[in-house]
Amino acid sequence: GGLRPRPGQEVSVKVLGALEDGGLVERDPRLTFVPGHGDVVQALELGVPTMQPGEVSFFLAAYPYAYGRPGSRRCACREPDVPPEAPLLFEVTLLEVRDGPDPQLLPPAARLRLGSQRRERGNFHFARGDFAAALRSYRLALRALDGPTIGPPGPEEEEELQEQRVKCLNNCAAAELKLGRAEEALADCEAVLRISPDNGRALLRRGQLLVEQGRDAEAALVLRRALELDPASKVIHAELSRLAKRQSPPSSA
């Protein structure tokens, strides 16, 4: 009879996850997400909306509703690896329910926490090879970082917000490439470079994408700048060598 989370609302939960032998594989004292956004396992997506604030529930999840057929490797949000096709028992405490985060004014520290949490969830999906889910989590992280704040961030908070944005955008580019979306990946790289013009990862990836598009002159400028920042990089040397060979006229017989 109590109030349960409505569609679009954000929840915070305390989560413990264990294998059948009792081994703890997940521990998060405050996991925040919006059910339906797809950035947590389905057991939580489906189970938490049935709960009331303050309620403690146990969800026994078959592997499709946990970490799937492949299981998962170690990541920041969990303890050890989850074996393939492993059912899990989740103990979940619903701590808080509130309206979705986008229209809310949150302090910069809260935006940083939310953005970092969603980026880590994206990293988890990426490590499992679920690149579409990873991309959703990275985009949600950016929405959290870019949302309105209560008062302007201080210099240190603003610097950290920018660093988090750069990480998320670089990760978006990596996921887009895995999904075969070169144009979107290029746009993400360019967004990174608007924030951090000397970001080596974005420069290299942008140069590689420009080479693939046949924009050799632009690619050469970008890759040379990347090489100035990292002269020892074998990858950048190889890209420039490949580009030089492509631009060399064929020798006459």
Automatic annotation (TrEMBL):
Domain PPIase FKBP-type: 8-98
UniProt repeat feature TPR, residue ranges: 200-233
Record InterPro entries: FKBP4/5/8-like, PPIase_dom_sf, PPIase_FKBP_dom, TPR-like_helical_dom_sf, TPR_rpt
Pfam families from the UniProt entry: FKBP_C, TPR_19
Any single GO CC term annotated in Swiss-Prot or TrEMBL for this entry: cytosol
Coiled-coil zones: 158-192
UniProt-listed GO biological process terms: negative regulation of apoptotic process
Record bears the keyword Repeat: yes
Record-linked SMART domains: TPR
GO terms of molecular function: peptidyl-prolyl cis-trans isomerase activity; protein folding chaperone
EC number: 5.2.1.8
Keywords assigned by UniProt, alphabetized: Coiled coil, Isomerase, Repeat, Rotamase, TPR repeat
Broadest EC class assigned to this enzyme: isomerase
Catalytic reaction(s) noted: [protein]-peptidylproline (omega=180) = [protein]-peptidylproline (omega=0)
SUPFAM superfamilies to which the protein is assigned, alphabetical: FKBP-like (SSF54534), TPR-like (SSF48452)
The name this protein goes by in its record: peptidylprolyl isomerase
Lineage: Eukaryota, Metazoa, Chordata, Craniata, Vertebrata
